[in-house]
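Hello,

Our lab assistant flagged a job as stuck in the queue for most of the afternoon. It eventually completed. Since we weren't sure the result was trustworthy after the delay, we are filing this so someone can double-check. Below is the sequence as submitted and the structure that was eventually returned. Let us know if re-running is recommended.
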Amino acid sequence: MYNATVLNNQRRTRLLRVLLLALTTLTMATTALAAAPIGQIIWIKSAATGLYVSADLNRGSFAPLVADRASVGGWEQFQVIDAGGGFIALRSIGTGLFVCADQNRGPYAPLVADRTTASTWEHFSWTDIAGGAFSLKARGTGRFVAADLNRGTYAPLVADRTAVNTWETFTWGAVGVDVNVWVTTNDQSKKLERQPALSFSGGRGAGANTVFVDESQRYQTIEGFGASFTDSAAYLLNQKVPASQLNSVMTSLFNRSNGIAIGFVRNPMGASDLARFIYSYQDSNDGQFSIAHDLADIVPLVRMAKEINPQLKIMASPWSPPGWMKTSGSMIGGSLRPDAYGTFADYFVKFIKAYAAEGIPIDYISLQNEPLFVPSDYPGMSMSPATQIVVLRDYVLPALSANSIDTKVLVYDHNWDGSAYPDSVLSDPVLQSSAQIAGIAWHGYGGTPGVMTTLQNKYRDKGNYQTEHSGGTWIPNQVKADFEEITQVMRNWGKAYVKWGLALDENRGPHTGGCGTCSPLVTVNSSTGAVKYEIDYFTLGHFSKFVLPGAYRIYSSNAEGFVSAAFKNPDGSNVLVVYNDATDPRTVQVVWGNRFFTYFFQGLSGATFTWKGSQDDGYSVKATTQSIQASSFSETSGLQTEVTSDINGGYDVGYIDDGDWALYKNIDFGSGVRSVQVRAASAGNGGTLEFHLNGTSGPLIGSVAIPITGGWQTWTTVSTAVSGATGINDLYIVFKGTSSIGNVNWFQFSDK
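-- returned structure --
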C-alpha cells in the first residue's frame, strides 16, 4: 500500500511538472508572439556595437549575420514571420532565405541566412526588454543570440549564450517607416523648418513623457484650415503684390507641396472692419443686387485659390446686411427689421447664385458675424437666438430650398463663452433635424474650446468649426497661443480652424474702425508690394500643410507639459502635432502600437511628425510610470478642457458639475496599486472625485476630495489610498458634488 501511494504521488508529481512546463511554454510562446512585429520588415541593431545587423554574402556564401553596418540597405533588412508554436523566423531580404543558428559551422552556432525552409534550427523566441529592446533565443541550441566582438571585429551573431546582457540585447525598427519632422521654435529661429528624419524603434519604450497614438479611436473628420479674403487682403494681394510674383505668393498660401495648403476660407459678405470703406451688395431698397465690388479683387483671387487647391472650402458671413434692412438705417449698429426677414433671406440667395455664376461654390454661410456684439465704428448687427431661429427656420432655409441651393448653414458664429446661443438655436426641433444645418461656428476671443465637446455630445450629427481668431499685438507669445489653441480646438471636435485676415499692410490695415492691432498670415508692403510671412503663417502651416481634407482626428494622449493632436489621412499617412508647453527643453516619447520614437524639444516649441503605415498593435498606459493628464481622456461628459497655468502648462479639465465623467482607456495597474495623487484647484464648491473601473458605476477603487483652494488656477496635490485594481482596465473618473466643483490637471497612481 505504501509503495503504491508513493508511486501514485510520483506519477502526480511528474504529471504536474509536465502540465506546468506546457503552461510555461504556452505563456512564453504567447508573450513572444505578442512582442514580435509579425509580418513586418525590420532592421536590427546591436546594443553592444550600436550598428545594424547584416546578412553579409561578402563574408561567405552562407551569408553570416554580423553587426557592423552604419546604415540600412537591403542586406540589413529582415522579415519577421510567425513560425508557429510561439516561435518566429527571420527571412533575410538580401538573400531571400531564412536565418539559421547553425551548429554545423561551429559549436557557438553562428547565425547564417541561407536556409530555404524554416524548422527547429531556424526558429527563435523573441522577448521584449525594458526600454524597447529585445532578445532572441535559438530554438535549436536553447541559447541566446549575441553580437560577439570576441569572434571578429565585424561582431558575428552567435547562439551560445546562457544569459542576456549587453551583447545579447538588440533594438529594432520598421523599415520604410521614416518619421518626417518639421519644427517651429519659440525664438522663431526655426519656422516650419524641416529636420532630419527619424525612424521608429521596436517596442514601447520606457520614457516618462509619453504620447500614445491610437488609430482605433476615431473622432471628427477635418475639412481645412485657413483665413479670410477680406476686402483689405484681396486688395493688397491683387493690386500691391507685383503681378509677376502673385502666383508664387498664392502658391505659398494654397499649394501643399510649395506652401501651407490653406483649405478653408471665410469671407465677409460686404464690408467688415478689415475693409477700405463700407459697402454692401445692394445699398438701397430699390437698387440692384451686384457683387461688382468683389469682381475687382476678391473673386479673381478666390478663383485662383480654388484652382491651386481644388478642395478649398468657402464660407460667407455678413458683418451687416444693407442698412435699409436694419433698425439703425445703417450698416453700423441696429438689428434686422422683422419686415426685412424675407428680403434678408433673398440677399443670401442672390449672393450664392452670383458667386456660382463666377465659378465659385459657397459651401457654408452663417447669418451674422458675432451676433452678440454690436460695434460702434464698423459694420455689425445684433441678432438674438430667438431671432436667428425664426429667420433661419422660416425664411433662409425655405429660400435655399426653393432655389435648389445646397449650401450648408453654420449657426451662431461667435465666442466659446456664449454657448447658450447655439444651444438655444439647435434646440429648435426643425433646425436640429435639418441636414442643411451643418453645425456651429465659433470664435476664439472668449471662453475655452472645451465647450465644443459639450455641444458635440448634445448634438452628435452637427459639426463644430472655429471660423475666426486673429493673432495680434495683444498676444504676448503667438507661437504658444497658436499651438495651444489649434491643438485644443482639434481635440474638441473642431472640423476647421480659421484665423482672420489673410493679408494686411505694414500698418496692420487698411481697416475701417475695428481692429488696428490684428496680425495677418502675410504682410504686404503697400509701397513695394514685398510680402513678409508672419509667424501665424507658420503655426497654421503645422496643421494645414499636412492634415488632408477628409482626415480623421485619432486618439493621442497628452503628457506632462506636452499637448498633442493626431490625424489619419485618407491616403493612409499619419500626422502628429506635439507642442512643448513648458519653458525648459524636454524629450517626448511617441508610442504607436508596437513601435516608438523619441524627440528632443526646445522650450515652448512645436513639431509636426508625419509617417506612413498602419498601427500594428494596441496600447496600454502603465499607471505608475507617469502622471495621466486629465485632458487625455478618450471620452467625456460635462468636462471641458482649458489652458492651465500650472507647472509645465498643458490643459486641465474644468467646468465640472455633479455626475460629470471622463474615460481613460487601457490603464495597466500591473499587480496592483495602493495610492493615487491628484492635482486639483477650485474657486467653487469643491466635491469628490471617484475612480471606477470599466464603467461610471463599475468597481470603485478609491475617491478623493477636491478641496477649495481659493482660485481656479491655485493648485494643490491631494492623495488617497486605492485598492482593487490589477491588470489592464478602462478607468473612469466620476465627480460627485453640486456645481462648479473644481479643476483637475493630472493624477498618478503608485504601488507604494
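-- support follow-up --
The delay was a queue issue, not a problem with the job. The result is valid. Confidence is low (pLDDT under 50) at residues 1-34. The first helix runs from residue 2 to 35.
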